[in-house]
Amino acid sequence: MASEEMVVTPWEVAGEIDYSKLIEQFGTQQLTDRLLEELRKYTGELHIQLRRKIFFSHRDLDWLLEKYRMGEKFVLYTGRGPSGNVHLGHVIPWIFTKHLQDKFDAKLYFQLTDDEKFLVSQNLTIKDTLRLTYDNALDVLATGFDVKKTFLISNVRNVQTLYKVAVEVAKHVTYSTAKAVFGFKESSNIGIIFFPAMQAAPCFLESAISGRNVPCLIPAAIDQDPYWRITRDVAPKLNYYKPAQIHCKFLPGLGKGGKMSSSMPETCIFTTDDPDVAAGKIMNAYTGGRATVEEQRRLGANPYACPIYYYEMFLFEQDDVKLAEIENRCRSGDLLCGEHKASLAPKVVRFLMEHQKRREKAKDVVSECFIDPCDKELQTSLGLEMF
Ligand code: TRP
């Protein structure tokens, strides 16, 4: 796979990913131990996704923490493009976002870009994407967010609230900039050309609603960074703070190389998978092992080329000592791949069963979690109360 060129854009992630190179290319900052130390002051023990450098890069996190120290609370913002079922790769940053919500007692705006997915898809109707918005929102809530502090946004349904901020942003982004950043072509439809303004808008929503500047932190996978580059350039022109970011890596798929991809269902565990089917996917996964047992015993395997190991690291083995043990046993040839898969599978099954239970419960509350376009108070605070 090393020969395949690395591609990381909001629409495509391919090849072997060199995360240090991405920091350089995108011009973000590495999450240093010093900064993690700073975070620890507020969160206590560092979350596993920080200890294990799954969140590895940022913009202005130091600034945001300094504001927090001075008494300015921030809002969190993240999102999901509802193009299909949610898989574990999507849930990873949400789990971390929930941790931040808990520790900083922060409000969360969660955007579901049904407009975007309709605009870029060959076959999804608006109705399909709205259905997926509802469906994916259940997974968002099943992650455990505090429903009193979590505000879901369906771009199509809640545009009345978002549009005011989106047009303000759009006025300051030229076509030539958008084209350079996102690779739009003459043949691109005009909806998708406006869309970056829709994704930028929630960064400023809390400020627009409250009438004062409120810092915003976006935890998300690093492929979304191009949106924030544009948003950050526009922010000072609108007298808003630039949104801060914290970026994570991608959970690998169960096949060889690359990100988990919904278009290859055998490579992802979907949150709605029957747990037994998911266990089967684990048992059939590619690994970093050798061709024969004899070779593996003699030479050991490579955990860093193995999705099974990464599943443990990203989510399923929370205990650092046990994770190190897995790594050592794998390297030494003591742990065979079949054995390792068989011990991971029940953990995945348990996770899915619990998630699916919470997902069912979410059905009772989900509609109240969306921003309400008829909310008089909200519309008044945005200056939309005229008639
Ligand atoms: N464009 C993102 C996607 O396709 C969805 C999204 C919207 C998002 N706002 C976001 C992701 C903020 C992360 C943070 O998945």
The first-to-last residue Cα distance is 59 Å
| DSSP strand tally | 9
Biggest beta-sheet profile: 7 strands, mixed
Mean pLDDT across all residues, rounded?
95
**Total number of domains:** 2
User: What shape does the CA trace take?
Assistant: globular
Helical content class: 40-55%
The total of helices stands at: 19
| Helix/sheet category | alpha/beta
Strand order of the largest sheet: 3-4-9-8-5-6-7
Could you characterize what this model shows?
There is one protein chain. The protein is built from 19 helices and nine strands. Helices cover 51% and strands 10% of the residues. The strands form two sheets. A seven-stranded mixed β-sheet has the order 3-4-9-8-5-6-7, with helices on both faces. A two-stranded antiparallel sheet has the order 1-2. It folds into two domains: 7-254, Rossmann fold; 265-362, Tyrosyl-Transfer RNA Synthetase, CATH 1.10.240.10. It is α/β, with parallel strands linked by helices and 387 residues long. Bound molecules: tryptophan (TRP).
